[in-house]
Amino acid sequence: MKTINEFLEAKEKGRKITMVSTYDYWSARICEEAGVDCILVGDSLGMVVQGLETTLPVRLEEMVYHAKAVRRGARETFIVVDMPFLSYQVSPEEAVENAGRIMKETGANGVKVEGGEEIVPVIRKLVSAGIPVMGHLGLTPQSVHALGGYRVQGRTEEQKRKIIKDAKILEQEGVFCIVLEAVPSALAKEITEFVEIPTIGIGAGKHTDGQVLVFHDLLGLLDWSPKFVKRYFNGREAFINALKTFKEEVEKGEFPDEEHTYE
Ligand code: KIV
After folding, report:
1. CA atoms within 13 A on the CB side of 86
2. pLDDT-based confidence at 2, cuts 50/70/90?
3. Which of 78, 160, 231, 233 stands the most exposed, by the fewest C-beta atoms within 10 Å?
4. CA angle at residue 24 from 211 to 178, to 5 degrees?
5. CB 154 within 8 A of CB 160
């Protein structure tokens, strides 16, 4: 995908959208070669790359650094960059400055922000500045402490009503796509049918217009993943075995052999 119009077209035509969260040059190249529709430079990098317990400490500079590397690896792919915690909640003016930095310095195609009604002034300002905005509802990790942990959202009637209302508001404010994270499948279906912009689910069942997973999760590189992650490759085991073999061969004097030695 190259433009936000293609996201809308995909929904109209019933073609499912794929998005992968990733953070560096070589994984971005792999995603592009595999034909993934959209790369999200997610602030999940705080947990996946930096080993933090939440996404809260991730800084704008770090997002910019990773997004630049991703753009170098995926020149033809639509790239969305997460605005990190407190880079957009303080004021709409500061949000535009920070989103503007992301767009100018990284070559991203859009930014993602978490939340609904409460961040309308921010979304309005970003959209009016011509910045494509992806929304994020349901389990919004930047609010993990306010939500009382990483738990499924939209199980109570009150939560459900708020998420549906927020989805409609985001659409009205010009958001081009909404990520729905950790919500019951029936709620994701209702929202997907209710809004005209595409929804991309993670832990939201199969009825959304697309799916997003974290690169390291779907390749099985991590030692733990949540229930909604399907591991398409046993990466952790494959990597460990390769490294063990390297160590053994070096210790036995088998590596480097002639094939890997200059005359
Ligand atoms: O930060 C991230 O990678 C995300 C996705 C999991 C949706 O927000």
Report:
1. 6
2. confident
3. 233
4. 30
5. yes
Residue 212's φ and ψ, nearest 5 degrees, are -130, 140
Radius of gyration of the chain, Cα coordinates, nearest whole angstrom: 20
Ligand 1 within 6 A of CB of 42: yes
Structure tokens of 212?
Answer: 């997003």
For the stretch 111-147, pLDDT in tens is 999 999 999 999 999 999 999 999 999 999 999 999 9
Does 214 contact ligand 1 (Cβ within 6 A)? yes
CA of 239 to the centre of ligand 1 (A): 24
pTM above 0.85, yes or no: yes
Domains of the chain: 4-218 (3.20.20.60)
Q: Catalytic site residue 181?
A: yes
CA 167 – ligand 1 centroid, Å: 17
